[in-house]
Structures are given as structure tokens and as C-alpha cells.
């Protein structure tokens, strides 16, 4: 204890300096010099008295000092968990955040600094387990602390520089947690999987993990539940089966066990969409393009959300089947709205073909997607059509819930396409701005709303009708003169 105090005497004076800094007695830029001066001039007895007094009135400082300088005894996982769990049994309820584990974090890092990474790992493991076991006592618990502590657990195992035999118990532990039937533990299965990837850093570790998984693999993937079955055990079993098989494939890929991986893909590519994509790419890489096309085409019919498969086939068919290539480009553009596929399709079509394609797109977008319709008109050089579509949409009463909810009044679409089409008929564009802005302003109050009004007015001013604009602004100020916040925001328009 005397040795610890002697060490304490020479390490703690910085606390006094920090206290002085907090009270403004020492400039921050001079703190290094101040520390040196105090270390040189202070008497050990004075420091001792100072420290005792500060610890008496500052519980956090006392805790940190004890954590740092007391001799640390190792404890069992059970003992650590018992102490941590007691924090949840305090008289008050932790409604949004769990209890503070700062004391245990400090203890863990002290062990780490003293070269005891496995003891540190035990403390962090205890923290993760206690957090899960007490999840029902904490509202809005998102697991950020859990992730930090699990990461620290893995870091400490790696710092211990264990051989494979010593590391196996930790791989076993993480694997058991990853596959746990406990729903609370299962909430963090993704984090446990990430931890396994971090811990299994070499081929030996990956093979051991693969062997564990092989012993736990399902014999197949259950059929999906029918719509009238509701959500039941079959859905859960299917999810778990897919999860195990997907991880197994990832491990085979990491180990370059291509033959086994190919067999897994062949068996399940119509059950797991990602397998269908990977299998098609693997076959193409191995120059078995015909089979790759067959697999991908089957996937288009078997799954929804097949954009990745369609993009794969677009590339494959580019030089093999021009008609199929164009059909897939058309489908991909309609599904994704990505104009890149529109441009690719246009470059592949004759003039007559393209005229028919544009006519089909126009018919699809009219009345259903004004933004794609305007985009089509602009890309085809049909400014009049784009102008008409924007003006008609701005003047119409909103027919979608979002526009009604935000009280859009058509101003958003005017603002969006102002730079593209306002010059076609600026007078009409300005008039529609006026028509839509006045009811928009009257709809509600609040500074955010008034700031939006000012932004629209600035856009109107750029259209160039100065006399009409000044009269309109004066009209708005007079009509809403009982809104001081509005008049205040309008001053921005005059600067």
C-alpha cells in the first residue's frame, strides 16, 4: 500500500492542475508548463492532503483513483455478473438507459493496462451478458453499449495472442451465442457473427468454425408458409435454416472451397435469392455462361426484387442476344427509374423502335408518375410537353396523401423544374407561382413555414417580373400584417 501511495503521489498532481484549469486560473495553452511547475514545486504531504480532501467531496474522482491504484484481484464471470446485475435492482427504474457500467469499464481497462487481457475479456463478456439478461428492464435499448463491449471482448482475446487450442473456447462461446434459441440473445446474432469473423483471423480458425457449423446444418430449407397459415413456426424454421446455410456458404467462400460451395449453390439457388446471384456469377467466371444464364433466368421467375439478377443478365446478353438485352433494359428502367438504362436502351434501338418505346413509356407515366413523364419529355427535347405536365400538376389539387399532408400546393414541382422549363413561358410560370404561393402561405403559421415562403419568393423574383413581384410582395405583407413572425422573415427578402 505504501508503494501504491508513493506512486500515487507522483502521478496525481495533474488532477490539481485540471482543477485549477476548470476554475480559470491557468490558460489552456500553458497547461503543460503548469503541470511541470506543480510537479517540481509541490510537497508530497501537501499533495496527500489535497488528494484526501478532493476524494472526500468528489466521489467520481475517488472511484477512479481506487480503480487505478488498488491491487486488482481476478474474479469469476459469475462474480462480475452478480455485481453488474445488482445495478438493475436499484430503487429507481431505468426507463430509457440502463445503469452506468463506468466502474466496470474502468476496472476492465485497468486490467488491460496491467497486461491482463483475458481478465479484461471476462469483464466485458459479463457486461454483454448482463445487458441482454436485463433488456426487459430498459426501454429504447439499442445495443450500442453492447456492441462496444463485445468488440472490446474480441480485441482482448486477440491481444492475448492465444494459440488455436486456447482460442477454441472463445470461438465455441461466440458460436453458441450466435445460434442461441433465446430470443433476447438472438437479437444480437449479427453482432456475434461479426465477432466470430474478427476472432477467426486465420485458416485454422475458419476451418474450426466451419466444422462447428457443419454439425449444426439443417438438412434442407422448409417450404415458406402459405398466406392463410399466418406467421408461425414454419417461417421461423425457414429463417433459421437460411441463416445457417448462408453463413456456411460465406465460410466456404472465405476458405476457397469452391467445389463444396458450388454444390451448396446448386442445391439452394432457388430458395435463397443471393445464392442465385452468386451461383450465376460463379458459373460465368468459370466460363459456363449457358448454365449461368439458365440459373439467372430461373431466378427472375422465382423471386421478387430481382434487379441484381436482371443487371447480371443485361451484361451477359449484351453481345449474345440483342433482343433479350433490350427487353431487360426496358424492364430495368421501368422497375428502377434509373435513366442510365433508358440511355442504354436508346443506344440499342433503331429510330422506329425508339419511337414505339417512347410512346409506351409516355402512356405508362401519364397519370401515374409525373416526374418520370417530365424527365422523359426533357430527354426527348419535348419542352412544351414537360412544361404542360408541370403546370397541370401544380394547378391540380393534390391526389396523393403526402402532398395533402405537407400542404404542397404544387410549389415543389414548380421549384424542381424551374431551371429546365421556366424559360419556355416565364410569364405563365410566374403566374402559377403566385396562384399557388398565396394559399400555401395562408395554410399554416410558424417560422419554418415562413422561411419556405421566402425561398419560393426568391425563386419567383429570379423569373424577372420585377413590377409584378414587388406588388405581390406588398400585397402579402398587407394581407398578413397580423403575423409579426412572417413580416420578420420577409426582411430577408429585402437584403
Describe the protein's architecture and organization.
The chain has 495 residues and is mainly alpha-helical. Among the domains are: 2-69, no CATH class; 382-494. The protein is 73% helix and 0% strand. The protein is built from 29 helices and no strands. The chain has helices at 2-11, 13-22, 31-41, 44-57, 59-69, 77-86, 102-113, 117-133, 144-159, 164-178, 183-186, 189-199, 203-214, 233-254, 258-268, 273-285, 289-302, 307-317, 322-336, 339-348, 351-365, 370-379, 383-395, 401-406, 411-421, 426-443, 447-461, 466-479, 484-494. Helix 15 packs across helix 16. It is flat, with a radius of gyration of 34 Å.
**Integer-rounded radius of gyration:** 34 Å
- For the terminal residues, how far apart are their CA atoms? 71 Å
Give unreliable regions as ranges.
1-14, 228-234
Number of strands: 0
Based on secondary structure, the structural category is mainly alpha
> What is the approximate shape?
flat
SS element count, helices: 29
Keywords, separated by commas or semicolons:
0% strand; flat; mainly alpha; 495 residues
Summary, kept brief:
By secondary structure, the chain is mostly helical.
Per-chain topology:
Elements: H1 2-11, H2 13-22, H3 31-41, H4 44-57, H5 59-69, H6 77-86, H7 102-113, H8 117-133, H9 144-159, H10 164-178, H11 183-186, H12 189-199, H13 203-214, H14 233-254, H15 258-268, H16 273-285, H17 289-302, H18 307-317, H19 322-336, H20 339-348, H21 351-365, H22 370-379, H23 383-395, H24 401-406, H25 411-421, H26 426-443, H27 447-461, H28 466-479, H29 484-494
Amino acid at each position: 500500500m505504501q508503494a501504491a501511495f508513493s506512486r500515487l503521489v507522483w502521478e496525481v498532481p495533474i488532477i490539481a492542475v485540471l482543477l485549477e484549469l476548470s476554475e480559470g486560473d491557468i490558460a489552456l495553452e500553458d497547461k503543460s508548463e503548469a503541470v511541470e511547475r506543480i510537479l517540481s514545486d509541490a510537497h508530497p504531504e501537501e499533495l496527500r492532503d489535497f488528494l484526501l480532501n478532493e476524494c472526500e467531496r468528489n466521489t467520481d474522482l475517488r472511484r477512479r483513483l481506487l480503480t487505478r491504484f488498488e491491487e486488482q484481484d481476478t474474479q469469476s464471470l459469475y462474480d462480475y455478473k452478480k455485481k453488474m446485475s445488482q445495478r438493475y435492482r436499484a430503487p429507481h427504474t431505468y426507463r430509457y438507459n440502463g445503469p452506468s457500467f463506468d466502474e466496470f469499464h474502468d476496472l476492465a481497462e485497468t486490467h488491460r493496462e496491467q497486461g491482463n487481457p483475458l481478465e479484461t475479456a471476462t469483464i466485458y463478456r459479463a457486461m454483454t451478458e448482463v445487458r441482454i439478461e436485463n433488456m426487459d428492464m430498459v426501454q429504447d435499448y439499442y445495443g450500442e453499449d453492447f456492441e462496444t463491449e463485445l468488440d472490446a471482448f474480441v480485441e482482448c482475446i486477440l491481444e492475448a495472442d492465444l494459440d488455436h487450442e486456447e482460442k477454441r473456447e472463445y470461438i465455441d462461446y461466440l458460436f453458441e451465442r450466435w445460434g442461441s434459441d433465446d430470443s433476447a440473445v438472438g437479437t444480437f446474432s449479427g453482432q456475434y457473427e461479426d465477432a466470430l469473423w474478427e476472432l477467426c483471423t486465420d485458416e485454422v480458425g475458419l476451418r474450426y468454425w466451419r466444422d462447428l457449423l457443419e454439425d449444426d446444418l439443417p438438412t434442407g430449407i422448409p417450404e415458406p408458409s402459405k398466406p392463410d397459415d399466418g406467421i408461425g413456426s414454419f417461417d421461423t424454421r425457414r429463417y433459421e435454416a437460411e441463416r445457417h446455410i448462408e453463413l456456411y456458404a460465406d465460410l466456404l467462400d472465405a476458405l476457397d472451397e469452391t467445389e463444396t460451395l458450388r454444390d451448396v449453390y446448386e442445391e439452394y439457388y432457388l430458395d435463397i435469392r443471393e445464392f442465385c446471384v452468386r451461383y450465376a456469377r460463379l458459373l460465368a467466371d468459370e466460363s459456363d455462361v449457358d448454365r449461368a444464364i439458365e440459373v439467372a433466368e430461373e431466378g427472375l421467375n422465382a423471386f421478387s426484387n430481382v434487379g441484381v439478377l436482371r443487371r447480371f443478365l443485361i451484361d451477359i446478353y449484351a453481345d449474345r442476344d440483342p433482343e433479350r438485352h433490350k427487353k431487360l433494359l426496358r424492364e430495368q428502367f421501368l422497375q428502377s427509374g434509373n435513366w442510365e438504362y433508358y440511355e442504354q436502351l436508346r443506344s440499342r434501338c433503331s429510330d422506329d423502335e425508339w419511337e414505339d418505346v417512347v410512346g409506351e413509356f409516355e402512356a405508362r407515366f401519364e397519370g401515374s408518375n409525373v416526374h418520370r413523364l417530365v424527365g422523359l419529355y426533357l430527354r426527348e427535347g419535348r419542352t412544351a410537353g414537360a412544361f404542360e405536365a408541370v403546370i397541370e400538376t401544380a394547378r391540380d389539387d393534390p391526389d396523393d396523401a403526402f402532398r395533402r399532408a405537407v400542404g404542397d400546393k404544387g410549389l415543389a414541382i414548380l421549384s424542381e423544374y424551374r431551371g429546365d422549363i421556366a424559360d419556355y413561358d416565364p410569364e405563365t410560370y410566374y403566374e402559377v407561382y403566385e396562384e399557388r404561393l398565396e394559399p400555401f402561405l395562408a395554410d399554416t403559421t410558424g417560422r419554418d413555414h415562413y422561411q419556405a415562403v421566402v425561398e419560393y419568393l426568391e425563386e419567383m423574383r429570379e423569373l424577372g417580373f420585377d413590377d409584378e413581384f414587388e406588388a405581390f410582395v406588398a400585397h402579402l405583407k398587407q394581407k398578413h400584417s397580423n403575423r409579426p413572425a412572417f413580416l420578420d422573415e420577409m426582411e430577408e427578402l429585402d437584403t
